[in-house]
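Input/output pair, single chain:
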Amino acid sequence: MKTTAFLKQLEVGEHSVYAYLIGDTQTGEAIVVDPADDVDVLIDLAAENGLRIGSIVNTHGHVDHIMGNAEMKAKTGANIVIHEAEAAYLEKIGDFWLELFGARKSPPADRVVRGGDELIVGAQRWRVLHTPGHTPGSICLYEASLGVCLTGDTLFVGSVGRVDGPRSSEAQLLDSIRKCLLTLPNDTLIYPGHNYGTTPFSTIAMERVENPFINGLWNLTAYGTFGE
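Output:
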């Protein structure tokens, strides 16, 4: 049976951020994850495939991931979705960071989610995994039938999100990876929030063996500035 699932990874902007367009070609429903930049490219891609973007999902509230929210919402009317522990921060990003990244302030969240909630896109059921550590409200999105997990800045290909910020926690990050991600099937495809690795995506099995922060070869405190 031909699948109607649509998933496209795009590197957008100047900060190596991966945005994701997720859709169902039968129903025309779509969501966009972390539309950090190149908003028109994402909108055009959706239109070319008969998709309508109904939600903007942020894996966390750092400016490099939310800087396209305002433009995307203005052009599509999509709702902004973020974890409940991150929603307040979304509105508190200071002018310094906005100016540094050349970003517009994000509108407030229209919907907040918790771990275990689902985002429905046609026949797809993307489960929200709450993975605090990089930030208190970081999330990953897992779709079991596709065998895909979008890991945001929690887990990269060969690395992990940084934990040197005031809202970050090394212990929480490693615990989130161990309990929420390494428990997924080994063949689960991992699609990260940044293009920092040797490949655009990986698998749980590969990261378990080759990621030095997971297999104990590197100490996360010593290398805590890797990733954003």
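Helices lie at 39-48, 63-66, 69-76, 87-90, 95-101, 170-181, 204-210. The radius of gyration is 16 Å.
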